[in-house]
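Appendix B, record 7
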Amino acid sequence: MATIQNLNLTITNGNGSNRTVKVSGQLKFTAAEVGKKFGMRIRLYGDDSGEGGGISLPIYTFTFGNGMLQALYKTVTAAATLPVNEEKQVAGDKLDEDPGWHVRHTPNGPMPFPKVDEVYALATLFKTTAPTTTIASKKSPTVTGIF
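Structure tokens (predicted):
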């Protein structure tokens, strides 16, 4: 059965208020799967497992294609190993899964600081023929920052 390995998420400053979001890893297929078509979906989640009581909500779904022909998944033809290297410009406010401020007490008195955001990617590999069935999914390590 296919697996998703070494899934990694990086978020860096992008153009203007956007952030450059990169998801990388590998899809590994068995000999019986080579040559078959699968769908791959990538979603970003806000990770509130600590302060939010364990709830992780989707905050962005990667789209694939050009112009008006955008799809919510990418069709891949299985080979022994396929690299995953997807990059998108995402509005910073989409990644701001913990909006608002914390007040911290400093030697100079109370100071507002933006809340830290926690984001992870979830890649899912599935059959595109009916019935659609999830073959593999993998969660990246959580990335923290003020997005």
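Remarks on this record: Residues 3-145 form a domain with the Immunoglobulin-like fold (CATH 2.60.40.10). The first helix runs from residue 92 to 95.
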